[in-house]
Amino acid sequence: MRDKAGLIGTGQLPIAEERLVASQLLAVCFGASDPPSQARFWSGVLGWPMVDDPRDGVAVLPSDDTGFRIRFVPTEVPKAELNWLHFDLTSKSFDGQQQTVARALGLGAQHFDVGQLPEDEHVVLADPEGNEFCVIEAGNNFLAECGFIGALSCDGSQAVGYFWSKALGWPLVWDQNEETAIRSPHGGPKITWGGPPVRPKVAENRVFFELAPPADGDQQAEVDRLTSLGATRIDTGQGEDGRVAMADPDGNEFWVLTPR
């Protein structure tokens, strides 16, 4: 895990980009051996309420402008490597950072070594099933306008940042030295990609996005649009509840759901 995709602590004026009618990021999903336990942990850390999910697993719902839920779905695949995505949690003060760390540790998190240096001010933790996340120090300019989840920090190429900007209709707010970041026009967290070197993908991700087609669109039209942007279908039909499995240009899996 690099230092937050090389983005944390830097300021940059937003880069203007035309907003498109696009998919909605409905959920960030984590594979879990014990979904209810994982949901209780993240509900406690974030202060978000838990709900049963109508498809499978359990979810926590945002109580701020985050715009997506976090879903925990059953999996029997053990976690064997760093996730391609982790949360960066923000802090308003040094004491606030320490309180977040203490709360997470009390709920079952552990300190996690990813090669951070003694002078690094962010704290790296892992949840009870080993999913990494960071508690960022106060005064971070890049995340100053974001909420408690300041960023979804991703390992990924510049091309995949461009893809997700167009897929979600979120403008680029950073594009420098092959590092990219996007943010919803409605606020909430940024999604950042650290650029090269990108770790080789050796197994199916335990963290993935769920997308809902535009309100005035249909699933097949959105699948076709995403394919034209560089995504690929990774199934030959539809999954449970009509979901279509796809992969972004870096090979990260995601689902396109049926309209509601």
Structure commentary:
- The radius of gyration is 17 Å and the shape is globular.
- 18% of the residues lie in helices and 28% in strands.
- It is built from 4 helices and 16 strands.
- It has a single domain (4-193), classed as 2,3-Dihydroxybiphenyl 1,2-Dioxygenase, domain 1 (Roll).
- It has 260 residues and is an alpha+beta fold.
- The strands form 2 sheets. Strands 2-3-4-1-13-16-15-14 form an 8-stranded mixed sheet. It has an 8-stranded mixed sheet with strand order 6-7-8-5-9-12-11-10, covered by helices on one side.
Give the neighbour order of strands across the main sheet. 2-3-4-1-13-16-15-14
Fraction of helical residues = 10-25%
Average pLDDT, rounded to a whole number, is 89
Kindly identify the CATH topology. Answer: 2,3-Dihydroxybiphenyl 1,2-Dioxygenase, domain 1
What separation lies between the terminal Cα atoms?
A: 37 Å
Domain VOC: 145-259
Pfam families: Glyoxalase_6 (PF18029)
InterPro entries: Glyas_Bleomycin-R_OHBP_Dase, Glyoxalase_6, VOC_core
Protein name: VOC domain-containing protein
Quick recap:
The chain is of the alpha+beta class and 260 residues long. It has 4 helices and 16 strands.
